[in-house]
Design brief:
With about 325 residues, the protein is an alpha+beta fold. The protein has 3 domains: about 60 residues, Calcium-transporting ATPase, cytoplasmic transduction domain A (Distorted Sandwich), CATH 2.70.150.10; about 100 residues, no CATH class; about 120 residues, Calcium-transporting ATPase, cytoplasmic domain N (3-Layer(aba) Sandwich), CATH 3.40.1110. It is about 45% helix and about 15% strand. It has 12 helices and 11 strands. A hairpin with a 2-residue loop joins strand 9 and strand 10. Helix 2 runs antiparallel to helix 5 and helix 7 crosses helix 8. The mean pLDDT is about 85.
Length: about 325
């Protein structure tokens, strides 16, 4: 089966799951039927672990806070000592009081001592850092940023390079059809799109949903597929209007020994533009290609530009193919 784990990972593409694989509570099954057993409950669940990480981060001490605590250990006794010396100095060596003064020498010395304690109180020193850490980690959690330790929060200001994922981070995570290539005189673009969308009606894969959505944009009437069969991560096939239609990846078609030479150049070109390409086979003949791309989020380019202005390099780490990754990197100005 395929499971949508975007609520936890931010990755829009489903994760393939086989027998014995672990699934996470609150994720969505996207393909077929899945039978699972709950092995962890309560505090052992993934959500509980995330909550615990946030709480531990709020309770942990940043290096600067540890330094402040060490200083406070000496600062507090020093301030008390200075206050006592101040009291003694004003009590026995202070200037004489006015003849008609309502304040005794003891009271005057006590007031000055209290003033020293108030001015030099180390409370702010001990409270400022943990307060900032609690607010920072709490606000980060609200915005989807998980800080495991206070030290990570402090060192964030010293970051020189940021490594980020592509899908769902730089891009929208919502694929859409960008190109349809047809080199057969027998079919037109809308024919290929309608056939592919009719097969994909029975699929819950994001690429299939993108094809069906594009057919809807063109007001195409879809047929009901017969004998639907899905190969997880590779493609789907079914009978549409009496014809056997297969929609799959170039790799899948090559493994099944279909002749894809007529579309090899187009597939390479489209992948070089950062697009995922599927081929449409009708009655054992490769009849068209459909390119699907996950477009860049609004604001991604500007965010990366701001990182560069701050002197921070940006790198992209992705499991996508090299050509697609390089195309997206060029579009948003990523360093590597």
């Amino acid at each position: 089966s395929s499971v949508d784990e975007s609520m936890l990972t931010g990755e829009s593409m489903p994760v393939e799951k086989g027998p014995g694989a672990s699934v996470i509570g609150a994720t969505l099954n996207k393909l077929g039927m899945i039978k699972f057993e709950a092995t962890k409950i309560g505090k052992e669940t993934a959500l509980a672990q995330i909550i615990r990480l946030v709480e531990e981060a709020q309770g942990s001490k940043a290096p600067i806070q540890k330094l402040v605590d060490r200083i406070s250990n000496y600062f507090v006794p020093a301030v008390i000592g200075i206050a006592i010396l101040t009291f003694i100095a004003w009590m026995f060596f202070g200037p004489p009081l006015a003849i008609n003064s309502d304040v005794s020498e003891f009271t005057r010395a006590l007031i000055v001592m209290v003033a020293v304690l108030v001015i030099a109180c180390p409370c702010a020193m001990g409270l400022a850092t943990p307060t900032a850490v609690m607010v920072g980690t709490g606000r980060g959690a609200e915005m989807g940023v998980l800080l495991k330790t206070s030290e990570a929060l402090e060192r964030a200001g010293q970051v020189k390079m940021i490594v980020m994922d592509k899908t769902g981070t730089i891009t929208k995570g919502q694929p859409s059809v960008t190109d349809i290539v047809v080199k057969s005189n027998k079919y037109k673009e809308n024919d290929i799109l309608r056939m592919a969308a009719s097969v994909e009606k029975g699929s819950e894969h994001p690429l299939g949903e993108a094809i069906v959505a594009e057919a809807g944009n063109h007001d195409l009437k879809l047929s009901d597929p017969q004998g639907f069969k899905a190969t997880a991560g590779h493609g789907v096939e079914a009978q549409v209007d009496g014809m056997q239609v297969l929609v799959g990846s170039p790799r899948m078609l090559a493994e099944r020994q279909f002749d894809t030479k007529a579309y090899d150049a187009d597939v390479s070109r489209l992948q070089g533009e950062g697009k995922t390409t599927v081929l449409v086979v009708i009655d054992n003949v490769v009849s068209g290609a459909i390119a699907i791309a996950d477009t860049v989020k609004e604001g991604s380019f500007e965010a990366i530009r701001q990182f560069h202005k701050m002197g921070i390099k940006v790198a992209m780490l992705t499991g996508d193919n090299k050509q697609t990754a390089q195309a997206i990197a060029r579009e948003v100005g990523i360093d590597q």
